[in-house]
Amino acid sequence: MPACGHAGLTGEQLAARPRLRAVTPRPETLLLAAPRGYCAGVDRAVQTVERALELYGAPVYVRKEIVHNKHVVEQLRDRGAVFVESEADVPEGATVVFSAHGVAPSVHAGAAERGLQTIDATCPLVTKVHVEAKKFASEGYTIILVGHAGHEEVEGTMGEAPEHIVLIEDVAGVDQLEVRDPEKVAYISQTTLSVDETRAIINRLRERFPAITGPRTDDICYATTNRQAAVKQLARESDLVLVIGSRNSSNSNRLVEVAREHGADSYLIDNEGQVREEWLEGKRVVGITSGASAPEELVQRLVEFFRLRGTTDVRELEVIQEDVRFMLPKVIRQALAAGAA
Predict the structure, then answer these.
(1) Which residue in 20, 69, 141, 305 has the most C-beta neighbors within 10 A?
(2) pLDDT greater than 50 at residue 19
(3) pTM for this one?
C-alpha cells in the first residue's frame, strides 16, 4: 500500500503543485486609548531613581520594584539601580529609594536604624490614603481597607494603623465583617482598583453600616479612573483589546477585566513579542492601551509590530484629557538646585 497521499508523484510534480500560503492575520484598524500609560506618580517615581543615579552615582538601592513594570525595572537596573526586597538588604549608610506604592512606618524606622539615606518616591495619592488611615485611627474608627491582599500598597497602608484596619477584597467580604462598633466605621481603598467593583463594595458597606464615613475625595486615583473610562469606550469599538503591562501590575489587570466586561476579547502583554496569532484571527479592529506603569515606548513598538504586518489605519481614541504633574521628592529637588547653583 502507498505510504502517503503523494505516492506515484515525481519530485518535479510535487514541486509544481500549488501550495497553500499561510495568511498572517492583521487588523484593518488600530485604536490607541487616550489616556494610557504613565501616570504622574509613576513618572515621578521613575524620574526619582534616574535623578538619584545622576546625583549620587551607582549603585542606588530601590526597595521592591519602583513601579510594577518589568521593562522599566530592567532599564533602571542596567543604569545601576539595585532592587532589594527589604531595607535590611541595603548596606549601612547607602542610598535607598522607596517605591511609588508606599511603605509602612516600620520600614522608615528600619532604614533609620541602618543609617540609610532615604528618598521617598511614594505617589502623593497613596500618601493621601496613608494620611486618611492615620486620621481615622486617631479618632477611634475601625477602618475597612478595600484592596488586594499582598499588594505592596495595601501592606504599606495597613502598616500605618494595623490594629485598626481590616482588609476586604470583595462584596462577599463585607457580609462576613464583624466590627467592634458599627457606629464607628470608616473606609479607605487601594488606589488602583476597579472603579465599578469598588463602588459596589462601598455601596454594600453603606448598607451594612449606615453610619460609615469615608474620605472626602475618592481614593481610586485619577489615572486609574481615567484609564478604565477610556478602555470601556475602546472595548465598545474594538474586537480585541491588548493591554500592555506586567502581571504584577494591579491597574493593568483591571484594564483587561474592564475590557472583557464591556464586550471585547482582551489580553495582558508585556510587549509585542507576546502577541499570539490566534488572538488576531478574524479581528478587524484592535484596541491598544497600557497600564499606568508602562512606558509609551512599548505602545509604539506594538504599533510598529502591526504596521509591519500591513496595518496602516492607526487612530487615537481620546476619551479624557490629562494634565497632572507631581514635583520630585524634596531631597532630589534640593540636590538638583544645589548642583545648579
Answers:
(1) 69
(2) no
(3) 0.91
